[in-house]
C-alpha cells in the first residue's frame, strides 16, 4: 500500500521510525515532511500536501502526527475526500461493544470502527500520548481493516464528501 506520511515537530522522530516499520511490512511511504526538525514549524504546511495526496488517490492512506493530533486531523479533514480520525492510544469503551453491538474487550475497537463505518482514509496520532509500539500496533490494525460497504455508511460518507 502507498501511504502518505507527515507530521509537525512533535512527531518528527516517531514518524521516522514509523516509516521504517511500514517499509518492513511491505508498504511504500511518501514523506511530505518536514525534512528536518524545527520546533517553530506549522503543521498545515506538511499536512495539506499529504491529505491532498490521499484525496487524489496518489496515496491509498495517510498517517499523520502532531502533539495532540487534533490540529493535524482538522487540517486534513478540510480537504474534500479525506476522512481523518484521531488516535490517542488503546482505550476500552464504556459498555464495551464492538461495531456490531456485541460485547467486546478489545481496546482497539475505535480503529476498526473508523474504517468499518466511516471508511477513514487517514489517521492522526497524538504523538505525545502514544508510544512507538502502540503506534505500530494501531497502524497494523487500522490498515488491515475494511470498509463495511453497508448502505447507511455509504450514504453518510457521501454526505461528508459532497
Structural description of this entry:
Strand 1, helix 1 and strand 2 (28-31) form a beta-alpha-beta unit. Helix 2 packs across helix 3 (70-76). Helices cover 40% and strands 15% of the residues. The mean pLDDT is 91. It has one domain (2-160): 3-Layer(aba) Sandwich (Ribose 5-phosphate Isomerase B, Chain: A). The chain has 6 helices and 5 strands, in the order E-H-E-H-E-H-E-H-E-H-H. It is α/β, with parallel strands linked by helices and 162 residues long. The chain has a 5-stranded parallel beta sheet with strand order 2-1-3-5-4, with helices on both faces.
Terminal residue distance: 26 Å
Low-confidence stretches: none
**Overall tally of structural domains:** 1
From N to C, what is the helix and strand string?
EHEHEHEHEHH
Q: Note the total helix count.
A: 6
The count of DSSP E runs of length 2 or more, i.e. the number of strands, is 5
Can you say what the CATH homologous superfamily is? Sugar-phosphate isomerase, RpiB/LacA/LacB
Shape: globular
Mean pLDDT: 91
Describe the secondary-structure layout.
Layout: E1 2-7, H1 12-24, E2 28-31, H2 44-56, E3 61-66, H3 70-76, E4 84-87, H4 109-116, E5 122-126, H5 132-144, H6 151-160
Parallel strand pairs: 1-2, 1-3, 3-5, 4-5
Helix pairs in contact: 2-3
In short, what is this structure?
The protein is an alpha/beta fold. The chain has helices at 12-24, 44-56, 70-76, 109-116, 132-144, 151-160, and strands at residues 2-7, 28-31, 61-66, 84-87, 122-126. Helix 2 packs across helix 3 (70-76).
Amino acid at each position: 500500500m502507498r501511504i502518505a506520511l507527515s507530521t509537525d515537530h512533535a512527531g518528527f522522530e516517531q514518524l521516522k521510525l514509523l516509516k521504517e516499520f511500514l517499509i518492513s511490512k511491505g508498504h511504500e511511504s511518501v514523506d511530505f515532511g518536514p525534512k528536518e526538525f524545527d520546533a517553530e514549524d506549522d503543521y498545515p504546511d506538511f499536512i495539506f500536501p499529504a491529505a491532498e495526496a490521499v484525496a487524489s488517490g496518489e496515496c491509498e492512506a495517510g498517517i499523520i502526527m502532531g502533539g495532540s493530533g487534533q490540529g493535524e486531523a482538522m487540517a486534513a479533514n478540510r480537504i474534500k475526500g479525506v476522512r481523518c480520525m484521531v488516535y490517542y492510544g488503546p482505550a476500552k469503551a464504556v459498555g464495551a461493544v464492538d461495531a456490531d453491538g456485541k460485547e467486546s474487550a478489545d481496546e482497539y475497537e475505535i480503529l476498526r470502527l473508523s474504517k468499518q463505518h466511516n471508511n477513514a482514509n487517514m489517521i492522526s496520532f497524538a504523538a505525545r500520548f502514544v508510544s512507538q509500539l502502540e503506534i505500530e500496533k494501531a497502524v497494523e490494525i487500522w490498515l488491515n481493516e475494511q470498509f463495511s460497504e453497508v448502505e447507511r455508511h455509504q450514504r453518510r460518507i457521501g454526505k461528508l464528501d459532497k
